[in-house]
Amino acid sequence: MHCKVLIIVWALYLIKIDNFICYCAHTINMVYLEKIKRKHKTYYYITKNFRTGSKKWKKIRKYIGDKPPSKKQMIKAIAYIEADALKKELMKPVSKYKYLSDPEAEKLQDLKDVFNKWYEKLNTIEIKKYEEDFIVRFTYNSNAIEGNRLSLRETSMILTENIIPAGATPNDYNEVINSKDCYEFMKEYKGEFNQKFLLKIHELLTKNTNCKIVGDYRNHNVRISGSDWIPPSYEKIKKEMKKIFQWYYSAKKILHPVELGTILHNKLVRLHPFSDGNGKTSRVVMNWLLIKNKFPMFYVELRDKIKYYEAIEEGDIGNDEAIVHYIANVLMEQHTFKSKKESK
Fold first, then answer.
1. Largest CB tally within 10 Å, which of 32, 67, 106, 123?
2. Overall average pLDDT of the 47-60 stretch
3. Are 115 and 296 in contact (CB under 8 A)?
4. Cα–Cα distance, 2 to 4 (Å, whole number)
5. Residue 7 clears pLDDT 70, i.e. is over it
6. Average pLDDT for the chain
């Protein structure tokens, strides 16, 4: 005869037997005390179900004995079950980070260490070449995502040769020049993320362009082309920005820098505080946070525009994890340092 006593439900699940309570921060699974009677005796098991499909579950059971489990036995049994589940890949390892897995965070740390060692060995000329190449690629891709018509070569001509390509519009040209000015400011900025910094970034990126309101929040409602998300009305911008600044100062104490930067980027894009230049401003802020924490910078390539937008849209429905993994992967792909043997 089987008798099940449900003890755990929901995300921060609660195990309760009589007056015993134990908290375990893991995924949404069901754990229960199972009583099985055989020949007038009762045997106790701790059992946990793991979802393997939309309507499929896998059970793992740990025998306790013929007496109700003590607190110590309960904790030991759950640890055994979860260790077994990890081996069978029925659950993911619990990371010390909110969104990144421990292997992802470890790879990012290795990337950071290798990049900084490599960068420190560069001489002045090599640093200049590296930064010129980065700002050309960052500017081209970031602008092109937003509709700028200049090619990578034309962007390079403006930034490295001071040549204005034939047919370049004043708006397209100024967006390129602005990107370099903003990069120089961002690189030297030693302060914190605040309203003055954010508005300065926007001003540098949008001056002398088609943007109607430069270096200040929008005074009208907007829609995002191709998206179902509707940003808050302009009357709520200052209030919502205050929340974002408060969130930042709280979150920076607990989030990994890549998590912090990407989620801040998503929050700014969702709010769309400016009349134009929201995406470019958010990507610059994200890169500033990376270099502030000694990580290399990156750019979202034009060819990845759809994947990038899809990750942003996941955030619109509450899943910021998608953009974290997307940006972490982009960062690692763009800064893969191969040994001389691998390069041959």
1. 32
2. 81
3. yes
4. 7
5. no
6. 87
Confidence band, pLDDT 50/70/90 cuts, at residue 54: low
Q: At residue 28, does pLDDT exceed 60?
A: no
Class of domain 102-343: mainly alpha
Residue 293: Cβ-neighbour burial (10 angstroms; 0-12, 13-18, 19+): middle
Kindly compute the dihedral angle of the four CA atoms of residues 188, 194, 196, 202, in this order, to the nearest 10 degrees.
80
Distance of CA 27 to the CA centre of its chain: 20
The rounded distance, in Å, linking the Cα atoms of 103 and 105 is 5
pLDDT at 19 over 50: no
| Encoded amino acid at 268, one letter | L
CA–CA separation, 116 and 118 (whole Å): 5
Whole-number Å distance between alpha carbons of 161 and 140: 15
What is the pLDDT, as a whole number, of residue 225? Answer: 85
Lookup: tokens for 344: 């041959």
Q: Is the dihedral of CA 275, 199, 241, 321 positive or negative?
A: positive
Strand duo 12-17 + 41-51: pairing: unpaired
Domain ranges of the chain: 2-87, 102-343
Share of the chain above pLDDT 90, in %: 65
Residue at token pair 């990750």? 311
Q: Is the pLDDT of residue 336 over 80?
A: no
Cα 101 vs. chain centroid, distance in angstroms?
12
Pinpoint the alpha helices (H) of 50-188.
Answer: 71-87, 102-120, 124-145, 152-161, 170-188
Beta carbons within 8 Å of 61's beta carbon, 6+ residues apart: 34, 45, 46, 47, 81
Which class for 198: exposed (0-12), middle (13-18), buried (19 or more C-beta within 10 A)? buried
- Which has the higher per-residue pLDDT, 85 or 132? 132
Taking 60 as the threshold, does the pLDDT of residue 10 lie above it? Answer: no
Token pair 């990337």 in the structure block, residue: 111
